[in-house]
Write a structure and sequence with these properties.
Strand order of the largest sheet: 2-3-1-4
Number of strands: 4
CATH architecture of the largest domain: 2-Layer Sandwich
Order of helices and strands: HHHEHEEHE
Protein name: Chorismate mutase
Number of helices: 5
Organism: Allisonella histaminiformans
Oligomer: single chain
CATH superfamily of the largest domain: ACT domain
CATH topology of the largest domain: Alpha-Beta Plaits
């Protein structure tokens, strides 16, 4: 079906066929990281792989905001530009894109870095990333001030 011929409807979940319901559940398992592979997810929901592939590109929650979330961090570091550089590299290694960055003036040999990044990672992946940043040499404190919360 061509894109210009597509029509969209809001439909109550209760009237959907079992195959479509299970496709939605399978996609949610994968999105939340509760299943690592499609094969694992379809086994958990009891749908065939062929049915999943048939419907997967045609179902999405009506209120599904964008897949990417914005996460904001306030990071206190020693006054060393190399620490900021290492933090940025760490963030860029994942499914992340830095949106804003502000590195304040040093006060008592410490600097505050506030940054926001767009991410497609799961909440648990974001928590791991924050823990990794906290454990970096030169990082004194990391606070998540927005986005990614449950």
């Amino acid at each position: 079906m061509k894109n210009q011929n597509r029509q969209f409807y809001l439909v109550d979940f209760q009237i959907l066929s079992e195959a479509i319901k299970k496709t939605i559940q399978t996609k949610e398992l994968l999105k939340e990281g509760e299943a690592e592979t499609i094969n694992e997810a379809v086994k958990k929901t009891g749908i065939s792989r062929s049915a999943y592939y048939k419907y997967k590109d045609h179902v999405a929650p009506a209120l599904d905001m964008q897949d990417d979330a914005i996460v904001s961090l306030a990071i206190t570091t020693v006054d060393d530009i190399a620490v900021c550089s290492r933090i940025l590299r760490k963030i860029a290694k994942g499914k992340n894109r830095v949106v804003t960055l502000n590195r304040g003036l040093p006060v008592k040999k410490q600097t505050l870095i506030s940054l926001a990044f767009e991410t497609a990672e799961t909440r648990s992946d974001i928590k791991k990333l924050i823990t990794n940043i906290e454990n970096m040499k030169g990082v004194k404190d990391v606070r998540q001030i927005g986005g990614g919360e449950e």
